[in-house]
Give the backbone structure.
Amino acid sequence: MLWEDELPEQSDYEPFEIHRLKGRIPVRDGKVLIVQGVRNVYEIINEKTVKGDGAVKSGDDEAKLVLIGRKVDQPAFRESLVAILASSS
Amino acid sequence: MTRCPAIDIEKQLTVSDTNSTEAKPIPFVPLANGCICCSVKDVGVAAIENLMEQRGKFDYILLETTGLADPGNIAPLFWLDDGLGSTIFLDGIVTLVDAKNVMKELDEGFGDDPKKTAEEKEHDHKGPLLTTCHLQISHADVILVNKADLVSPDELSKVIERIRSINGLARVEVTTKSRVSQLEGWLLDLHAYDQVSDADLEFATKGHSHLDPVSCLSILYVPFTSWLTLI
């Protein structure tokens, strides 16, 4: 989606541009992935945790993504993104 | 490190196929300094790195662009892959907004190249105009709403609301005469391409623009269950 400006499994949508992307995605082994992106360049890194800080933080089990761009608020875009998140969890 | 002028030492070769009598040149891409890293990096980035090698490392580099720059074209050049072993990294993008004129810039493309504005209008005639101002706001990590002394409090709050609806991730500070309360966190040491906290994203869930072609989408998803919330 980010590299090719296409929405998988969606046939009817308007052209979109992603300008900026930030996200936190918890994954199965307790780690959290951090997503950073600008235009079609993006990076996924592991969240750095402070040593000894085992406290559960709020939002630990929720994946949050914020995208800024052109036509990112169209329904097809939301549906496509959520479908990808659902299929990969 | 040995310094050599960047010349291509490989000559173009021709190869003949055993099955034919033709000799064709192999297509090849000349690499700057014979190094793929030097070719992949932007000329500007390489120039900065060379300068630091000669003059010693800088603590910080502030790149001031023209008023018409599209940060989306520039940011990817400076956000380098770790594998390239660069000494520089992209800390963040700061956009200075003129509180007095920003609405005109967003609505009409005031200040933009008129030809570019006309092209944009043709490209998407049903929607609102995408201007350089939109791009500079959408890509920003910090937005300074300047000349606050030239607008009323009501106008100022409308400006801030409009800006936040385009970019809900950026930190916004109101300034007069471009003065910030402190450099760290506002102009320097932004770490905008570094770690992302839950708090960073929480704030961005408010607001969404209907007036602008650029907007924010927030997705909250709880894995391992079938419940989804779309904000």
Notes: Strands of chain B lie at 14-16, 23-25, 94-98, 142-146, 171-174, 214-221, 228-230. Chain B touches chain A at residues 72-73, 75-76, 79, 130, 135, 138-139, 166-169, 193-198, 200-202, 204-205, 208, 213-224, 228, 230 (CB under 8 Å). Residues 82 and 89 of chain B are 9 Å apart (CA to CA).
